[in-house]
Amino acid sequence: MEARLNTSENPVTSKLAKYIISASKVVHDSALPAVTQELVALRVSQINGCAACVDMHTKDAAHAGETSVRLNLVAVWREATVFTEAERAALELAEQGTRIADAAGGVPDEVWANAAKHYDEAQLGALLSHIALMNTWNRLNVITQQPPMADYQPGQWG
Fold first, then answer.
1. Is residue 132 part of a domain?
2. Which domain holds residue 62?
3. Nearest in space to 74 (alpha carbons), one of 96, 34, 100, 46
4. Which NCBIfam families does UniProt cross-reference here (predicted)?
């Protein structure tokens, strides 16, 4: 697959990417556990069908020590027993926030309340921001048909 647009050379999308990367650094440097960040990034990317992000976040998570068993089970996290209750709450919020158009009324109160049981205010802010940013990346990549980067190295994009 060849990308429809070279987003790294386009004057608008390359500038936008710099801002998104800067915003992503805020989340990366937050108290939200790094493993949760990667699981959420992977799940959001799976839902949105973003091959480039699935590839990247699978590699990043593995590099950070995540097991192949857990990575393989992210797509079926509800049935899997390898995730903590906090991770499950984050994955549920990520799914509901990504599929927001599928539910009248948006994200249910019980989904938010469950996440709030496991994460403090700052972590919830980071989780919410991460979900929004991943959806932004996914849409940019899916619309322009960005293929996975075979030579992507973990951490390459900050």
1. yes
2. 11-143
3. 46
4. ahpD_dom (TIGR00778)
Residue 146, Cβ density class (10 Å: 0-12 exposed, 13-18 middle, ≥19 buried):
buried
Query: b/e per residue, 43-75, with b = 16+ CB within 10 A?
Result: bbbbbbebbbbbbbbbbbbeeeebeeebbebbe
**Domain-embedded: residue 158:** no
Q: Is residue 155 part of a domain?
A: no
CATH for 116: 1.20.1290.10
Based on the structure, what is the number of domains in the chain?
1
* pLDDT, tens only, 63-98: 989 999 999 999 999 999 999 999 999 999 999 999
- The secondary structure of residue 158, as a DSSP letter, is -
Identify whether 52 is part of a domain: yes
**CA separation for the pair 43, 33 (Å, rounded):** 16
Residue 11's SS3 state is helix
pLDDT in tens, 15-53: 999 999 999 999 999 999 999 999 999 999 999 999 999
